[in-house]
Amino acid sequence: MPSLRTSILFITGAWLNLQAAAAGDEASDEARPHKHHKVHGGSASLGRTSTMTTTTTTTTPWITSIDAECLTVGKAASVRFQGASPGDKVKFERFCHNASFIHGFSTVGDDLRAKVTAKEEGILKLCYKRGNTKHSAEHTLFVEAKLASSPGSVTSISPTHVHKSGPTEISLKGPRKLGGKVCFAPSCDMCSQLYAGKDYPMVDIPGTVTFRKEDNMLSSIDPSFDGNEFKLCYQGPTNCDWAEQSSLKVRWDPYVRSITPTCVGANTTTKITFEGAWAGDKVQFAKDCSNVSEPAVELS
């Protein structure tokens, strides 16, 4: 039977060994990465200590930029999301975590573009989902949504005939409005691409604007265009879209680009089509146009 002194030393030694083992476990715990466990009520056992930990899912924004600063309420727009991946989901909302957040997402295509529509006026945040994940997040990027421009802002223009080779001052009439912009283009959808590096012509209505065909970038945007007329498009001072104005147009010489047919019989009545002409234009065939003060036939 061991002596009392031997027993005490044995017990004391065991206690010291237990302490050393515990210290070793703690050191080992510090050397290992900590794992956080999401807890739904109660407590979780981590090692020897009972604790309660909660984590918040966060998503690092991966979209670095968008190529739109303004959207028109109710009008779909193609927006490029730089840094996104095909299949990502995007939308613009005033608050990303409202009741309608799960609906209305647009899918980013292979060209990193998506068709998005602003449903309300104001500053809207970019809401997104990464791929097919169910987690959603709010981005720091935002756009401003504005109401649409009015198609009746300009009611008439004069003159409607301009010269390709030089500037023409055009008078615009309509309800009084200050600080709008005008754009002359084959289609108002092209206005955002025209006048690169230049300010769009500003105008007060009623007012005047100088038309210069050479000021825009149409030759590089649509080299195949060979028409001789532009539509008048208008953007209000509080809008960001371009609205075609009451079918108003300007055209430049040569006004008649071709005629069909080009051969007719003498002393016969023949219907001739004048491409590029407008109703109300007047025409006449003569050996010498210098002797014609006003053409005799009005086109309809």
In words, what does this structure look like?
The protein has 2 helices and 20 strands. By secondary structure, the chain is mainly beta. β15 (229-235) and β16 form a beta hairpin. Helices cover 11% and strands 36% of the residues. The protein starts with a helix and ends with a strand. It has helices at 4-31, 218-221, and strands at 44-46, 49-51, 65-66, 70-72, 77-82, 89-93, 106-107, 113-116, 122-129, 136-146, 156-158, 161-162, 168-185, 202-211, 229-235, 243-252, 258-260, 273-275, 282-283, 297-298. The longest helix has 28 residues, at 4-31. Strands 11, 12, 13, 14, 15 and 16 form a 6-stranded mixed β-sheet that branches. It has a 5-stranded mixed β-sheet with strand order 4-10-9-6-7, with no helix packed on it. Mean pLDDT is 76; it is low at 1-60.
Radius of gyration (CA) equals 37 Å
- Structural category is mainly beta
Shape: elongated
Low-confidence runs = 1-60
SSE run: HEEEEEEEEEEEEEEHEEEEEE
| Total of DSSP H or I helical runs spanning 4+ residues | 2
* C-alpha end-to-end distance: 131 Å
